[in-house]
Amino acid sequence: MAKVPRNFRLLEELEKGEKGLGAEACSYGLEDPEDLLMTKWNGTILGPPHSVYENRIYSVQIFCGPDYPDKPPTVKFNTKIILPCIDDKGHVLASVLPCLNEWKRQNTIETILIELRRYMAAPQHKKIPQPAEGEEY
């Protein structure tokens, strides 16, 4: 099977994100539309229902390095959140989040956002006390 080059892959992801064809509770796009290398992305996650995150919008930054999609991007929350997979500066700990720790080339930015939302909704995480709404790192 042919390996899709990085920029073609990111163009596909950008098109899907801009058209809103992905998961309803997550969105993503380029931080700067002029970024020809498609390195810096913004994402949003709507807090899952029936959890302490409900009715909140979480903002994340995604950095797709030159080895993406062979290597996972780095992800950082802008919105303050308390979760076992997030450090005290908002960085997602790749070793804790399965889709980053066990990265597969077919994973996407959307995969990460959906998994973060599922992680938030997990029974052991959905009642963790959170910072006041609107706080940022």
Task: Give structural notes.
The protein is 22% helix and 17% strand. It is an alpha+beta fold and 137 residues long. The chain is globular and about 45 Å long. A 4-stranded antiparallel sheet has the order 1-2-3-4. The protein has helices at 6-18, 98-101, 109-121, and strands at residues 26-30, 40-46, 57-63, 74-77. The protein contains 3 helices and 4 strands; from the N terminus they run αββββαα. It comes from Neonectria magnoliae. It holds the Pfam family UQ_con. Residues 5-137 form the UBC core domain. This is E2 ubiquitin-conjugating protein mms2.
What is this structure's SSE topology?
Blueprint: H1 6-18, E1 26-30, E2 40-46, E3 57-63, E4 74-77, H2 98-101, H3 109-121
Antiparallel strand pairs: 1-2, 2-3, 3-4
Low-pLDDT segments, ≥5 res: none
Strand content: 15-25%
Name the helicity range: 10-25%
- How many H/I helical runs? 3
Integer-rounded radius of gyration: 15 Å
Overall, the morphology is: globular
Q: What is the end-to-end distance? A: 42 Å
* SSE ordering: HEEEEHH
Count of strand segments: 4
Biggest β-sheet strands, sense, barrel: 4 strands, antiparallel
Structural class designation:
alpha+beta
Question: Quick gist of this model?
Answer:
The chain is α+β, with helices and mostly antiparallel strands and 137 residues long. 22% of the residues lie in helices and 17% in strands. This is E2 ubiquitin-conjugating protein mms2.
Question: Features of this protein?
Answer:
UBC; E2 ubiquitin-conjugating protein mms2; UBQ-conjugating_enzyme/RWD; 137 residues; alpha+beta; 3 helices; single chain; 22% helix
